[in-house]
């Protein structure tokens, strides 16, 4: 009889210890003095994604700058007119017009305006290609790692909900962790929207350059349009919890 009681007691102890193990494992995640769960590594990964999307926005702003028409140079050339450009004092006229606007420069005729626009590079196609490639590389990294970040955050939120329900963490600790996740998501989403806005602006700039006579910009416009679509697609995967 004593043997039977001892066996039952040992079995019960094993069951209790087995049930307590997950709680002990979760408790081990608490900081020694803060009493809050440590998702440090995951939040560091979130911060990395925030930095990546901010870098994409900066690169897209470079594309906007490189796609902006050099209005001062165009105005000076058109103001001097095609007949003056062919004359010996063309450089002097251009310098004067660029320095003080087109005031005092010879009014260009329509034929001269078209020829100057065709001969001048209103935007630097080579600079644009470099900027587009850098932005594409950055966007590729984001679209690869963003789903992983979102999935990990969803898992963290589920764990936080379980721990809160079981009383393993305080309301304050729960709110702090959830706020960190929400903040990183909002910052990533905002940076992606801003990047898409920059892409749209760059497309408009290049369309204006094409209207004024620069050729060979079709590839650049299509590439930037594709980046806009991919950026908005990435943004659409983010819910703000």
What do you see in this structure?
- Keywords: Signal.
- Residues 1-20 form the signal peptide.
- The model is unreliable at 1-37, 72-79, 81-91 and 96-107 (pLDDT under 50).
- α3 packs antiparallel against α4 (90-100) and α3 packs across α5.
- It contains 8 helices and no strands.
- 80% of the residues lie in helices and 0% in strands.
- The chain is mainly alpha-helical.
- The protein has 2 domains: 39-68 and 124-241, Up-down Bundle (Methane Monooxygenase Hydroxylase, Chain G, domain 1), CATH 1.20.58; 70-121, no CATH class.
Describe the structure concisely for a colleague:
The protein has 241 residues and is an all-alpha fold. It has eight helices and no strands.
Cα-to-Cα separation, first versus last residue: 58 Å
What is the CATH C level class of the largest domain, in words?
Mainly Alpha
Oligomer: single chain
Summarize model confidence as the mean pLDDT.
78
| Rg (CA only) | 31 Å
Secondary-structure-based class equals mainly alpha
Enumerate the spans where pLDDT stays under 50 for 5 or more consecutive residues.
1-37, 72-79, 81-91, 96-107
- DSSP summary, beta strand count: 0
Report on the biggest sheet: none
- Helical element count? 8
Query: What shape does the CA trace take?
Result: rod-shaped
**Beta-strand percent range:** under 5%
In CATH terms, what is the architecture of the largest domain? Up-down Bundle
CATH topology tier name of the largest domain = Methane Monooxygenase Hydroxylase, Chain G, domain 1
Domain module count: 2
Order of helices and strands: HHHHHHHH
Helix percentage range: over 70%
């Amino acid at each position: 009889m004593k043997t039977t009681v001892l066996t039952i007691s040992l079995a019960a102890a094993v069951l209790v210890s087995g049930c307590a193990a997950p709680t002990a494992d979760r408790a081990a995640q608490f900081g020694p003095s803060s009493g809050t769960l440590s998702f440090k590594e995951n939040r560091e990964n979130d911060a990395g994604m925030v930095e990546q999307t901010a870098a994409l926005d900066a690169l897209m702003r470079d594309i906007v700058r490189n796609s902006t028409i050099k209005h001062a140079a165009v105005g000076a050339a058109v103001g001097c007119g095609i007949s003056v450009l062919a004359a010996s004092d063309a450089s002097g006229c251009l310098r004067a017009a660029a320095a003080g606007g087109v005031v005092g420069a010879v009014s260009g005729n329509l034929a001269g305006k078209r020829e100057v626009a065709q001969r001048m590079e209103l935007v630097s196609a080579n600079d644009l290609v470099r900027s587009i490639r850098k932005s594409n590389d950055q966007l590729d990294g984001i679209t690869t790692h963003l789903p992983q970040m979102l999935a990990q955050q969803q898992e963290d939120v589920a764990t936080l909900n379980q721990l809160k329900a079981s009383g393993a963490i305080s309301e304050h600790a729960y709110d702090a962790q959830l706020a960190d996740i929400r903040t990183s998501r909002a910052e990533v989403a905002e940076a992606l929207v801003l990047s898409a806005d920059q892409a749209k602006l760059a497309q408009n700039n290049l369309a204006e350059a094409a209207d004024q006579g620069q050729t060979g910009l079709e590839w650049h416009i299509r590439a930037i349009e594709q980046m806009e679509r991919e950026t908005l697609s990435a943004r659409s995967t983010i819910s703000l919890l």
